[in-house]
Structures are given as C-alpha cells and as structure tokens.
C-alpha cells in the first residue's frame, strides 16, 4: 500500500491533483479565470489594508520583528511601516490582516475564504523569488484549486469543528508556494503532505471573541510556506495526506468526505471562478438574509420602523457559526449576529464596513430590532448547502402585513458578480477605512492589479 | 457561558490548571521532581545531539536560516555550527533533533514524549530572556504538567488519530514559555488557548516513512513559543480550549475524554515524576516485549538461535502504531517493527541506538526471526493501558520447550528508574552516535545539567 517517496506515477486522487498543479501553464488558464484572479487579488489588498489595525495583526507583526530578520525580501501590504521581512513572516502578517474585516471572498462548496491565505502567501513567495505577474497568477490559480478541493473533500462535518479556511487553505498555500519555487511533482506532493499534517484551527475562539481567526489564517500562510521551502530542502511529507488511513479525512472528518472533489474535472472547472466577493461586511452566513431583506424592503416599500419581526430561514451551518457569538458584545461579534446585522441593513440600507461601529453597538433601535429576529432551519435550503447558500426572510410589519422574499444568490456571487467599478469602489472604501490618505497610491495599485499579467514582478504591492 | 477575556477568576478546569502554573514557585517543587527534571533535561540534550544529522533537522535548520535572523539570542544544542537564532527557530530545530532517535522520554498516561517539546522550547526562551536554572526548572515542571494533563484529557481515541506529543505538547510549550516570560494568569490562559487552536500532527507519515514526526515536535515548539510571545503582546486566545463547545475535546477526540485529569491533585502529583526514560532505541510500544523477552532468555538460558517463534501479547495502541510501518524498510521504520526489534534484542542482548543500522536491515537472520514473531491483543493488558504499558511474551524453542514471561514495568520507568550512571552512560552513547569527539565537553555538560538549580543562566548548553 505504501509507495516509495521517489515514485512519480500518480495513482491516488491527491497525486493527480498535485500533478495537474505542477504541469498547468499560464497559457492553459482561461481568460475569465485570469481576470477573476486579478479582481480577487485587488479585493485582498483592500481587505488587508482595512484590517491593519487589529490587535492580532499588531501582535503577529511584533512576533515577526522578534523572531524574524531585521529586513528581508518581502513587504507588508500595509506599506506604511517600510517594514520588510522574510516570506514566512510576510505571509503570516498579511494573512492575518486580510481576514480581519470579514470582507474577503468565499468559496461556497468548500466553505472557505481562499483569498486570505492564498494571496498573502503567494505574494510573499513571489516577492522572495522575483516571480512575474503571470507566474503569480498561475500559482494563485493552483493554490485555489488545491485548497478549495481539499475543503470540498473535508466537507460540512469538518467545518462544524474546524475553520476550514485554515485547515484546507494550508494545502493551497503549500501548492501555490511550491509552484513559485518551481518544485517538481514529488517535492510538491511532499509540501502538500507536510502542510496537511500541520492543519489546525478550531472555532472555540467564537465563544469568547478572542483572536484565533486571524491566527488561523496567519499560521496557514506560515505553515504552508514552511512546507514548501522545507520540501525544496528535501523534507519528505506524507503522500496521501487527504485519503490515507491516518490522513486528514480519517482524523479531521467526523462525517462524510467527498473524495471525488479532489480530482474531478481538473483543468476544466476552476475553483477561483466559483468564489464570491463579499459585498456586506458581516459574516457570510448572514448575506442571503440581508439580500433577501433589502430586496423585500425595496419591493414592498417597507422601512426600518415599519418592521415588527423578521424570521430568517436558513441552513444548519449558519446556526453552528452564528450561535457562538451571543448577542454581539464586540464590533467583530456583532457581524456574527443575524439579528444585529439585519437591523443594520434595514436601518442603513446597507451593511458596509463603516456601518459596524462601537456607536452601532450602543444603538438601542438596533438592539431592539435584533431581539425581533428569529432564525429557523429550512430543510430544503439546508439540503442544498454548501453547494448553494440560499436565504428566505419573512417580515411581519407593524401594520399587520406580512411579506416573504428569497434569494438564491447573494450580491457578489459568481451568478451576480461585482462590476469592475464596484470592485474598485469596495477597494477604495477598504483603503479609506484602513486610513490610507494617498489616493493616487490607491489608484496606482488598482491599475497595477488589473494589469497583473504584464507585471514583471510583484514588488511594491503595498499601500 | 462566555466570559470576559479580562476576568481572572478560575471557574473551569483549564483555568485552575493555568492558575496553578502561574503561581507555583520553585521552592514549592519537591526535590525529587527537581532532580528528575535535571535528568530528563540531560537526556534530551543527548537525544538532540544524536539526532542532529537527520534530513528533517537539516531542512528545518535551512528554513530557519532563510526565514529567521542572521544571529540571535539562542543556540542549538548541536553547537557545532556556532549558529544562533531567535527562540522560535531554536526551539523548532532542537525540537526536531531531539525526537529523531526514539530515545526521548515517555509519559504513559498521556501517551506523549514531553521532553522533546518542553525542554527545547524552554531552553530557547530561557536563553532569550536570561532565565536562571531555577526559573528554567520551574517552567519545565509547569510545561510537563500542562502538556501531560492535556494529553490525559485527550486520551486514547485521540492518540489513534493524532501525534499527542505535538497536539498536547504545544499547550505545555506555551505554558513553559509563558512562565519564563513572566506572563500573568490571563496572558498565560490566552497563550495556552492560542496553542491549542494550532494543535496538529497526524500519523499518516508512518505509512510511507516520511518526515512529519520531527515536523510535529518542531512545530509544537514554534507554535507554543508563538502563542506565548503573542500573548505577551495582547493576542487573546480562547479561554476554554480543552473543554469548550468548539475546543480540542469536541473536535479532536472521537471517543471519551478524561476531564478530571486536567486539574486533579495539582501541586501534589507531578507529571514529570511519571515520565519514563527510554532505554531501548525502538518505539516505546516494543519495550515491554523487549524487556520480557530479555528476562525470559536470561532466566531460561535461551539463545537467539534457540528460538522457534515468539508471541507478544500487548495492547491495541501497539497495533495501531506498529501496524503502520510495514516490515521496516528504513532504519527508522525498523524501530517500529515488533518482530525486527525483538530480533535485534534477542541477537544482541540489547536494542541500543547502535544496533539499528543499514547493516542490520540486511541481516537475514534478523529478517527470518522477524517473520516468526506474532502480536496478539491481550484484553487484560489493553484494559490497563495507558495507565500501565505491560507486556507478555511466549517463546517456543526449537527444542519444543515453551516459556512465558511478563513485565509490568519497563527499564527506565518510574518504578525501575535509571541510575545516575546509566543516565550518564546513555548521554555519552548518544553524544558518540552524534559524532561528538570532545569528551571533556560532554562531561562538562553532564556536570552542568546535574547542577542546574545553581546555574545563573542557560547559555552554553551545547555540545
């Protein structure tokens, strides 16, 4: 059953996936995938600058200054510090900052936010080795594919316990980094295996609003980069880390795995095209309800003050995640309260990053609205999750009228993509939230991101 | 249910454990515990020097040179390179090298090898902050207590899937490092929580003899040190990472947990006193059978050539671990083959580090002996595992005679401790295996280790 680490003939699913990851060329990647990569990369830059002031980012940055070199080949997306470091620490810091404001992308069927781990890690390694824009794009496409397929394999029951963005994402990071380091098939397989045996990230932090969410994405970047660099230096990783008898499926999945997800339609389906932009600044599990509520309020001309109560019908995973944050005592927790988020959306007509503030936490009209929102499990919606993240809201008005509205897709989903100008607007808003005053620098970054396949290197992608 | 991160009143088991860890003083630690700490520390130094040439250690060292500072406050136990680095990387490298030769200690009831993570990490942090010998001893005692109690809590079903030395050990590392950094109760609780949400390490590497075993211990050191330094810089970790609804027990334990283990008899029972030295150089699951076989051969005057077959009666976990390495194609795998190990012991009268060689792998008499060894599950022995690691062997001789021998304890167990001269002899053998020629340096290290409580700092503990 075991196979020599030197063998190069793929005969397991993960081996086929890794073989594809090492062989695909930039020119094989369809243009819509290239375009979406650039959009998601720009979106991640915005998320990172908006999240720069979080205490977890500060603590991780301080750790990097204590443990890392005094200067290195890699930059922070928050360029204000003129701080440079080694790729493992640059990935770690950018991986933390880009996951703070809950505005990073979502790949539904894997239940992961791939951008927050893939782009920071790939950017760091690309800066370290001087990769071109095309190399970078190909590495990110590969990283998405490996990470998202791993997440799909691990599935819903894994997500109930683990922060899949990190546990599956670390494999994607290793694959993207391996690609930029030009590792061969066997080395890449080792890197992915070493990444998987480090997979970690528990939801416990949700209970007391502590800082692990950023730790998980930061460490997925660090650990995946470690796996790739160490594989280049002959560190062997387990070959079948997903399906092996003591692999991730056996240890980290209490329910069903989806083996076919690992290697079906390689080169034809692209995970990156199935990733959604987050338009609202709240937990992604609230978005279908927010969109349905806003649609309902517009269609029936219902105002915030008119609403007596709201019932949202949703899937089980929404209960699992949103149920951990209580009533939302902190700004971060408030983005995980369905009632609070719907209140914000109903009152402001949007739930943007600037709508979740300390002031909002103390707004008694929002707190009262929050109490009048109830979540109900919808069997049909649940059955389609995580392939589809749907939502239905039922609004009872003070007038006695009752309305129902459903959405199959949220704004920003592949079926309802953001326009280029919306993506740019979101980037500008995120940069403003992050305190960037230099508008021409923002415009320059936007231009460079959309020109990525012609960039000679990845240096200077900092605000 | 959730509690403010700022609250300082312990009301969960992990809070009581962490409170004890922050309050215990060196003078509270009984002398036998202090003495055993020094012995285990010396034993770890020997293991690290013996493991210095492993490819995993080389790859991790190279990673540290690429990602870390060009020089730092911390040394490698292998001092030959005059290499200094930051504490996270020193812990990482020493944590890898001390787990290579399968000679590090064993804490039975937690099924962990605590020394290989606690001492390397504590040594690095102690060197970084200039801790005294007494501070170091207290930190290691605390690290053992937190790591081993976490391992006992996680239990047997966890160990079937996970390398508990790393998954529980990382909490011990965080506690030991926190202690040396003089973190307060709330900070230490954060550090332990951040450690636990990074807990990782799968057995899949056993299937193809890849390098994750050392990755796990290396990363437990790195991750636990990260958790402590970040907690000092205000990173909040989940407060109830063991028993919380999305904590380690919920996510990483398919079977039963043992909550009482977390905080029973704090300050009265010391995990460190319950740790065994490894006398034989093979997987610890083979030791009861090796000791029983050697005892049987001596008692009945049976020689290697006289043996027709051996049946070893053992516990389930031995099957789970030993069953993954096949017939032992590599030197490392051969230490996990019950048949091969018993052959070595029977032929050489010992199973020391110098007995497992490429030559031995090709020894046809050992390979034939190996085939005549059968493992059987013994219900009674299994019921007592992991509190007791017992073994019975039944030997059928070519003469037709049959003998049975059992052992309740292995040589090196708390009940059959190594003498000081045996510990010194083992250290000298390990150093010789590691290629150390400077005998006076070895003697000096032995002397310093036994004088540890009077040492003013921990610098220079290198071969």
First CA to last CA of chain A: what distance?
51 Å
| Rg estimate of chain A, integer Å | 21 Å
**What kind of oligomer do you see?**
homodimer
Number of strands of chain A: 8
Structural class of chain A: alpha+beta
Largest interface: A-B, 69 and 69 residues
Organism (chains A, B): Hapsidospora chrysogenum (strain ATCC 11550 / CBS 779.69 / DSM 880 / IAM 14645 / JCM 23072 / IMI 49137)
Protein name (chains A, B): Cis-aconitate decarboxylase-like protein
GO molecular function, one term (chains A, B): lyase activity
Pfam families (chains A, B): MmgE_PrpD_C (PF19305), MmgE_PrpD_N (PF03972)
Features:
homodimer; 463 residues; 21 helices; alpha+beta; two-stranded antiparallel sheet; 2 domains; 2-methylcitrate dehydratase PrpD; 60s Ribosomal Protein L30, Chain: A
Walk me through what this model shows.
2 copies of one chain form a homodimer. Chain A is of the alpha+beta class and about 475 residues long. Chain A folds into 2 domains: about 260 residues, 2-methylcitrate dehydratase PrpD (Orthogonal Bundle), CATH 1.10.4100.10; about 120 residues, 2-methylcitrate dehydratase PrpD (60s Ribosomal Protein L30, Chain: A), CATH 3.30.1330.120. The first copy, chain A, has 21 helices and 8 strands. In chain A, strands 6-5-7-8 form a 4-stranded mixed sheet. In chain A, helix 4 runs antiparallel to helix 11. Chain A starts with 12 loop residues before the first helix and ends in a 13-residue tail after the last helix. The N terminus of chain A is likely disordered. Chains A and B meet through helix 3, helix 4, helix 9, helix 10 and helix 11 of A and helix 3, helix 4, helix 9, helix 10 and helix 11 of B. Chains A, B: Pfam families: MmgE_PrpD_C, MmgE_PrpD_N. Chains A, B: It comes from Hapsidospora chrysogenum (strain ATCC 11550 / CBS 779.69 / DSM 880 / IAM 14645 / JCM 23072 / IMI 49137). Chains A, B: GO terms for molecular function: lyase activity. Chains A, B: Belongs to the PrpD family. Chains A, B: InterPro entries: MmgE/PrpD_sf (IPR036148), MmgE/PrpD_sf_1 (IPR042183), MmgE/PrpD_sf_2 (IPR042188), MmgE_PrpD (IPR005656), MmgE_PrpD_C (IPR045337), MmgE_PrpD_N (IPR045336).
